[in-house]
Amino acid sequence: MSDSEDEDAGPTIGTYEGERHPETGERHGQGKAELPNGDTYEGGYENGKRHGKGVYKFKNKSRYIGEYAQGKKHGLGKFHYPDGSVYEGSFEDDKRSGNGKYTYPNGDVYEGGWENDMKHGTGVYTHSDTGLKYDGEWTNGKQHGQGKLIHSAQVFEGNYTDDKPLGKGTYTFPNGAHQTGNYVIDGAEEEEESEAQKREWTHEDAFYQPTKA
User: Fold this and answer.
1) How remote is the C-alpha of 39 from its chain's centroid?
2) How would DSSP label each residue in 104-150?
3) Which of 23, 64, 114, 174 is most buried (CB neighbours < 10 A)?
4) Cβ contact 27:19 at 8 Å
5) In this prediction, what percent of the chain has a pLDDT beyond 90?
């Protein structure tokens, strides 16, 4: 969700109260603006653009509290979305980028890396209803790379591709037993995975290693 509308563009520019540049007359310093679409902004300006810390309130009840650079969300901030979800963390060029925490309306939480508004890098996604947790690598919003799937005391650790386990991995069970194996695609001779294809677990070996007290 962008708040990059040019406040000084067009025949209707809304209203502004605040400081201006002594030479250019542009918004500069602290000020408060109401945009033509009903959104409001209160905070810092530099040479006519939002800059520094500010609060942007959308007409749909969303709001952003945080840092700006040259008219765009850039730096640390907190965004409240209309569906009730909340992101708190780093922004770059108006998008979630860097490290941040996203809390979903159902209580699920993702905390970790972001790039271009998508989960990217390393991060932890926790399901609120079951406590199921994925801790690992992400690419373009999907679980992709090495990761752990943790549920209670049972853990799967291995490779993920497009949100699903694929390739070598290891299960660790509450009693201390371990099982290694591979997730393979049933019908892998097809060029692309279809909805009918399933990823199956084929184990290589299993052993028991007592857990330490």
Assistant:
1) 24
2) -TTS-EEEEEEETTEEEEEEEEE-TTT--EEEEEEETTEEEEEEEEE
3) 114
4) yes
5) 77
> What single DSSP character describes residue 193?
-
In a 10 Å sphere around its CB, with 0-12 CB exposed, 13-18 middle and 19+ buried, how is residue 205 labelled?
A: exposed
Q: Which residues of the chain have pLDDT under 70?
A: 4-12, 186-199, 204-213
Token pair belonging to 201? 């677990």
Q: Which residue has tokens 């801790």?
A: 135
Show the tokens assigned to 20. Answer: 């201006």
The whole model's pTM is what?
0.85
Place of tokens 């692309």: 192
Q: What's the DSSP call for residue 9?
A: -
Strand partners, 177: 208
Beta-sheet pairing, 49-57 with 177-185:
unpaired
Contact 140, 118 (CB under 8 A): yes
